[in-house]
Amino acid sequence: MATNKQAAPKKKSEGFQGVRGAFWIIVVCAVIAFTLFYTWFGNSMHFQGGDVENGHPADVWGTIFKGGVVVPVIHTLLLTVLAMSIERWLALSTAFGKGSLPKFVANIKAALNANDFAKAQQLCDKQKGSVANVVNASLTAYRDMESGANAALKKSQKVAKIQQAHEEATQLEMPTLTMNLPIISSIVTLGTLTGLLGTVTGMIRSFSALSAGGGADSAALSQGISEALINTAFGIATSWCAVVSYNYYTNKVDKLTYALDEVGYSIAQTYEANHTEEA
């Protein structure tokens, strides 16, 4: 026997929604960083006389290699920031939908003010993305409040249910929006600390060369200073990229959540304005 009411299926965002196994991104970045370090930066062609151990660097690649084993660790963090930034860009592009988000919000509000819910539904189907999914869930709740099954509820209860549907739909979308941002945030600090670690180890090597005395240890002294400066430079660069990336994508998520709140408020207010309290 057929039922008279069937729960509406929840829409899911189409397209790329982010990489959940971020650990493997870090592993791949580490493999790339260490492979480049030992096969390219540490190639004998980048050192005078082809002597990797005791020769002076012949170019910038050899200088980077002299930074020591901490360099590929920092490179792993840097590659991870770049990979996560690309991943977030693809995921948030899907979440924002196919058209301009401010224009979509304005069109939805105009449709709601005109009580044209068919137009609002068409806008959601065309826009897609997280905002469209949340708006669609709110519109579905709006229509449910219009049905006879909820006739016994007071207007305030109906408005509360519409708002609840909006909040639940928003919570379903939020993990996709903020996924992997904590990793980028962590690298902001890890990049600087790892660079500082390399700097300290390089200075230890420099002072060890000085303590030995004599001009014969000038190569060891220069290598220690090089290790300190290279790690400092890459550590700062990694943290800089991580800060820019984290703040940029956090700002984009904030804009999207503001748009969600604005449309959700408009839908609830439209219902409240268009319905009188039943006696």
Summarize the structure in words.
The chain is an all-alpha fold and 279 residues long. 75% of the residues lie in helices and 0% in strands. It has helices spanning 22-41, 60-65, 70-96, 101-113, 117-127, 129-146, 155-178, 181-212, 218-274. Helix 6 (129-146) runs parallel beside helix 9. It is rod-shaped, with a radius of gyration of 29 Å. Residues 1-11 have low confidence and may be disordered.
SSE inventory with pairings:
Elements: H1 22-41, H2 60-65, H3 70-96, H4 101-113, H5 117-127, H6 129-146, H7 155-178, H8 181-212, H9 218-274
Helix pairs in contact: 1-3, 3-6, 3-8, 3-9, 4-5, 4-9, 5-6, 6-7, 6-9, 7-9, 8-9
Offer a few descriptive terms.
9 helices, 75% helix, mainly alpha, disordered N terminus, 279 residues, rod-shaped
Shape descriptor: rod-shaped
Q: What Rg is obtained from the alpha carbons, in whole angstroms?
A: 29 Å
Strand content: under 5%
For the biggest sheet, the summary is: none
- Approximate helicity band: over 70%
Poorly predicted residue ranges: 1-11
* Helix/strand structural class: mainly alpha
Distance between the termini: 35 Å
Topology, number of strands: 0
Q: Residue-averaged pLDDT, rounded?
A: 82
> Number of helical segments?
9
Element-level helix/strand string: HHHHHHHHH
